[in-house]
Amino acid sequence: MPPKIPSLLAPQASVCLRCLLRLSKRTRVPRSRPFVQSFGPRNIAEASGLLRRDYFSANRSDTSIRHAVPSSYLPLARPRHKTPEGSLIAHQPGNGHNSLPELPHRRRKRLKDEQQAGAEVIPPDASSRLSTMSTQLPPSSLRRLFSLYLSLSKPRLSSLIVLTTAAAYSLYPVPALLLPQTTASPSLSTLTLVFLTSGTALCSASANALNMLFEPEHDAKMSRTRNRPLVRGYIGKRGALIFATVAGAVGVGGLYLGVNPTVAFLGGLNIFLYAGIYTPMKRISVLNTWVGAVVGGIPPLMGWAAAAGQNATASGGWEELLFSEGSIGGWLLASLLYTWQFPHFNALSWTIRDEYKNAGYRMLAWVNPRMNGRVAFRYAVLSFPICGALWWFGITDQAFLLTSSVVNAWIVREAWRFWRRDGHKGSARALFWAGVWHLPVIMALAMAHKKGLWEGIWQRLDGRAAEDELWMDEDETASEPEPEQELHVQRTLPVGPAIS
Q1: What are the phi and psi torsion angles at 374 (to 5°)?
Q2: What is residue 182's predicted lDDT score, i.e. its pLDDT?
Q3: Contact present, 294 and 301 (Cβ < 8 Å)
Q4: Own/partner pairs for 225-229, CB < 8 Å, 24+ apart?
């Protein structure tokens, strides 16, 4: 009888040598296999459980494979699982599964898919994040209450509005900038700037709070706004209404008393346009975007009118501050803000166009996606002539044309890609972030290239200002009239003809 040897197939089992040879002949794997080989339905059924369509997705060859191979010819399949993004990846060593390490080409494809999946995601707005952070604070603390009411004001948007207002205030042309003889009577008041920025911030907070108060049930349907304080119930509608009323009254009153009545009227008008016209119009017509752009263009006009009120030569009424010859700079800055909002907002709305549609907001991104891209590109191009007009009318120096053109070319390029690619391939996200950086950089460049700023600085550094002042003193001394001297005139009688 042939000797028995231990089996490797099952513990506590033995098999004879003759049976082992017979089994080895039956399951022997051929050393070579023809290139073309057909298999029966039974072998294909056995291999269908191990060979799946997504196995070849990394090499894009799933459509070219028409035949399966027997399971005896296949290596052990690695266990796979779904990531939160939905892509299938192999389990990595050390994660609780006995598996092989992920292949490099599969890892590259997985990272690329994850990047493309997250490329179109826009982060939640500042109000939602601030409201979520406040929940980690003690319920009765002042910090929690302050954070919740601060989130009603949309702090990031309000900060941008205050920045544009202050930039327009500082860009107002002042005669003889930085010369020593003008320091005795300062041209622009710092106290007026404080009233201007604080009043503008309060007006913006009031308008934003009213906007949230009118549409909490619609904000709950969107991922960016579903964590706002009124949606989550952290603040009641009565508290939001009191906050909006007090902020609006104090803001408009501060602008009236600390700046001038024209700026106060513009602040109150902005609250009405944003909360009373733009907010309900979002559910009626796509023209709400143009109304919202008008709201965004008013703050720089407020800053310009505030500076013009201190240098008014007549009564300082709204005609002189808004429609005089010197008010062209304020309207140019307002136009810059108006045109900037279209590429920025159109990119944002395209990313969440389905959420806007489900919430009932009529946005151009889903009503007419092709027109949405054209409008973004069209208004992005207008930033070139507006920046050129700022130099032409003497608001900035000539170097602003070069520096602003670089930034404008960036947003125009992204707007072109957004239009041509219909918002896909990451073009919407690229245009959104280009818009985020475009406006602050343009405003900072305009203030850095203000007309006469660097000339006055270089003159002061070179000492030419002191020399000019000295020459002016000498000229004034030389031009003083000499004391009048008494003139003694001898009057004589006229000599007439001789009398004969």
Answers
A1: -65, -45
A2: 45
A3: no
A4: 225/124, 225/125, 225/127, 225/128, 226/128, 227/124, 227/128, 227/129, 227/131, 227/132, 228/127, 228/128, 228/131, 228/151, 229/127, 229/131, 229/134, 229/148, 229/151, 229/152
Distances (CA, A) of 441 to 137, 138, 181, 326: 35, 39, 32, 25
Spatial separation of the C-alpha atoms in residues 434 and 341, rounded to whole Å: 12
Instruction: Put residue 463 in one of left, alpha, beta given phi > 0 → left and psi -120 to 50 → alpha.
Output: left
Residue 178's pLDDT is 40
Mean pLDDT for 390-399 is 93
Beta-bridge partner residues of 82 = 88
Query: 434 versus 20: which is more confidently predicted?
Result: 434
Residue 75 has pLDDT above 90, yes or no: no
Structure confidence at residue 42 (pLDDT)? 52
Cα pseudo-dihedral 241, 247, 252, 253, rounded to 10: 110
Question: CA–CA distance from 260 to each of 219, 302, 331 (Å)?
Answer: 37, 10, 18
How is residue 164 written in tokens? 């544009």
Is 115 a residue whose pLDDT tops 80? no
Model pLDDT, residue 185: 43
How far apart (Å, rounded) are the C-alpha atoms in residues 306 and 325? 16
What whole-number distance in Å separates Cα of residue 212 and Cα of residue 233?
12
Query: In the beta sheet, which residues pair with residue 450?
Result: 396
**3 state DSSP class of 14:** strand
Matching residue, tokens 């080989």: 37
Alpha helices in 352-487 (DSSP H): 353-359, 364-367, 369-381, 383-392, 399-420, 427-448, 453-462, 464-478
